[in-house]
Write a structure and sequence with these properties.
Blueprint (H helix, E strand, L loop, with lengths): L1 E5 L2 E6 L10 E15 L6 E6 L6 E4 L2 E4 L2 E3 L10 E14 L1 H8 L10 E3 H5 L1 H12 L3 H18 L5 H12 L6 H8 L3 H12 L3 H18 L4 H7 L5 H12 L3 H4 L3 H9 L11
Antiparallel strand pairs: 1-2, 2-3, 3-8, 4-7, 4-8, 5-6, 5-8, 7-9
Helix pairs in contact: 1-4, 3-4, 5-6, 5-7, 5-8, 6-7, 8-10
């Protein structure tokens, strides 16, 4: 377990030694004794938080506080209005590609409607069982193995998305948000209306929003790594630096300079090392 310190918060961060058996699943473990108002930065994945500590993580949003194990759709935190807090937090955080989220969750990401949903609402008693199992073992690698086995079982039993929808998502991710939205429908042989409808209903966001979110995520981590805003804007497909500034403000409620110092993004690069390498198709 690695340690990350930001202000008064000391994070313990654990990473699996092996990749998940399910393509589109990544995970990390966190231990934080005192977490105070951490700004959540949007990410192009469905987030699954499996809580098992003596305390509970809390997400504060316009809908009110949500405690414990929870699920959030892609882009959670847009506008900078979602904050995380808690004491004695221990959890496994899973990132699910939207392509596999419906099978794993038993519900389409579209049903989350941008909100944070208690895991028990989707998994019933299985949410309580996995909490107990994670708390009963002392090794992070054992916790990752338990989580992976559960996700693999649910994924195998769940319904897949349309191959055309999966392909369109893969195209957006592999291009780092530079894919032409208008060309996606033609490339899969569907009408624009059909692709937009299926994409949104199965993945939880429309293609144009997906492109914007993937591009922002790539740019955000380059800013955190210390690259200049002008260079990032030009290289990441923004019209100019002002365009990048507007997108960062839209997604985080902060300027690029402020966002580059956000602890959420700094600890993110520890928890998911290698995320800056070329995107792997999912």
């Amino acid at each position: 377990m690695r340690t990350f310190v930001h202000g008064a918060a000391v994070w313990g961060v654990a990473c699996p030694r092996r990749p998940s058996r399910v393509a589109g699943v990544t995970m990390a473990g966190f231990r934080v004794h005192a977490l105070d108002t951490l700004r959540m930065v949007p990410h192009p994945a469905v987030t699954l938080l499996l809580d098992f500590g003596s305390g509970s993580p809390v997400l504060d949003s316009a809908a009110g506080p949500q405690r414990g194990s929870m699920v959030a759709g892609p882009g959670l935190g847009s506008g900078g209005a979602v904050r995380a807090r808690g004491e004695n937090v221990e959890c496994v955080q899973v990132r699910l590609s939207p392509v596999i989220a419906r099978a794993v969750l038993g519900a389409s990401p579209a049903e989350l409607d941008g909100a944070v949903v208690p895991l028990g609402d989707l998994w019933g008693r299985e949410a309580s069982r996995i909490r107990e199992q994670l708390g009963d073992v002392s090794s992070w690698q054992d916790r990752f193995a338990l989580t992976d086995a559960l996700l693999a079982r649910r994924h195998e039993a769940g319904p897949p998305v349309d191959p055309e929808v999966a392909w369109a998502w893969h195209r957006i991710v592999s291009s780092r948000g530079l894919a032409r939205v208008d060309g996606l429908a033609a490339e899969v042989g569907w009408s624009r209306k059909r692709l937009w409808s299926r994409f949104r209903s199965q993945l939880g966001l429309p293609p144009k929003r997906a492109v914007k979110l993937v591009r922002f995520d790539h740019a955000a981590h380059r800013l955190v790594a210390g690259e200049g805003a002008a260079h990032v804007a030009a290289d990441a497909g923004y019209a100019d630096q002002s365009h990048l500034h507007r997108d960062v403000m839209e997604f985080t409620g902060a300027t690029p300079a402020t966002m580059a110092g956000e602890p959420f993004l700094a600890v993110d690069d520890i928890a998911w090392p290698g995320r800056g390498t070329p995107a792997k198709p999912i």
